[in-house]
């Protein structure tokens, strides 16, 4: 297990800075100075070529991730995407130390049986017989580690290179970038491993040449690759703290630009847009969140003298809101002895599954469940998933993600997956046919499709899957990254429905909006099967992803939920939302249906003919209207794969009075004539195209409190 301190760099220092400044942590909609500073530092490091000058191919742009595996997956996704786009060879060779890359793309069991998770990705471990090592020149993408020798002489012009580097691979004893730090001249992508944050938390990143990453930075591709906890203020803060200690000379040279990012929002916007996300920068300007430094406490985000209720909460991450004032004291009060054993006992009691493997994000937890499931399953290697489902965007998590758009130019992916539409009239027949004609080893499902429109799976489908499992012996994998951690009332929705799963994933709420974490749980039967196989898969994944601070956060969050009777609060909140919203908005002409499951709420919109094809644009207009509400501004979201469905995931500690205000804002906004929404929406869209200097001089904040009601309820509650 990773230690929580190295020398004088402590992870608690970063948390202290976060809470002292009341910075939003898991919040995307602002020009985050900490994230921007982290991206600038990583880009500058990546841009140092072998000769100590800026590399060719443009600036390196940054993608932040939750651990080395996730960053490596993103880097391979990008290079494979580019190679497929260019119609070139997309086969990948990974050369590195066994403890770093084992079980990433495939697993070899002691019996000799090989299970491939990502096709055409080959792992070659350090120290293996060089005579049998594959020729790097026969691969379209080559991944290497800084400790390896030079590869540039062996690679062709049509190949792409990925370099994984650690802190000690880059900086010299003086804390500066030495000339020629890189063993590969101008790699196409550089992956920064967890040593950059002293292995204290699941943080990593990759830097890619702008000529490559610009393909993902287009308006239409802005959500093509994203992760659960990205961006992450606390991880970026800890990274900067570590760099100030370990690379003090480099950071001294960077200080003028870092200070400018802190105080000059125009410059920050430029750096944020060029190195991190131009589409997100445009969205921030559209919503008006670029006009001041936001602060976040409890359920609210404050911008200037305006306060907004956060009903997104990191997309279902929020248990009790932003920056709980007692968080550090609570974590320090958690005993460090036998953390894993105590968490195992608590999960066994609450969930019914005591065996678990930690992960850095929901997608990583899904990948772990699928890997362990396929390895431990002897019946078959097909995965049966449901149409509309979402497992994540990392290479192997895409297995259960039903979206051709998110898989464009990434093939080949795991091939043995079957999708069945659970909402079709013949869904049971389709399930029966799939199970009869394919050797199904895992059935993967979300009981409520959070990304796919907040839709519950029909009970008949769930019952049939459970009944067939008893006969066929496949593993049932229930993904509860969004529905678990009391989001839908019980600790898991499976428990509420009386469903017994072999695998179950928890995430989002496990973080308490503070420390990024997730879990992949499995049954005694699975555990016994792993012991019979004598595989080290679960051990390696656990050691790679476990953090003491993560265990403490999850233990503390579970204890908090039990002590504060969160289960009962969520059930009461669910009933109140139903009473206030049903009959009020579902009868409106632009609303098709409202769906309330605990504190996971979806509102499906419809536009009248001839505007039906603009359903997704309609959602954006209503979201802007909620943000501008004069009495109770509300930050809501939408479902990524069903953009016409508004989504509310407020903190689990939301009170009755706040629920009334939320419902008032939703009802008022959805009752607005479409013509008035369109006019105000056009004005907001124009903001993102004006120079920021003009906006400062001329524009009024989009979040405006009525002068007739300056002391509205949300202000006093903040």
Structural summary, described in words:
With about 725 residues, the chain is α/β, with parallel strands linked by helices. It folds into 3 domains: about 35-280, 3-Layer(aba) Sandwich (Aspartate Aminotransferase, domain 2); about 305-315 and about 565-715, Aspartate Aminotransferase, domain 1, CATH 3.90.1150.10; about 325-565, Aspartate Aminotransferase, domain 2 (3-Layer(aba) Sandwich), CATH 3.40.640. The chain is about 40% helix and about 15% strand. It has 26 helices and 28 strands. The protein has a 7-stranded mixed beta sheet with strand order 3-11-10-9-8-4-7, with helices on both faces. It has a 7-stranded mixed beta sheet with strand order 15-23-22-21-18-16-17, with helices on both faces. A 4-stranded mixed beta sheet has the order 12-13-14-26. α2 (about 35-45) packs across α8, α7 runs antiparallel to α8 (about 250-265) and α22 packs across α24 (about 675-685). The longest helix has 18 residues, at about 70-85. Residues about 1-5, about 50-55 and about 690-718 have low confidence and may be disordered.
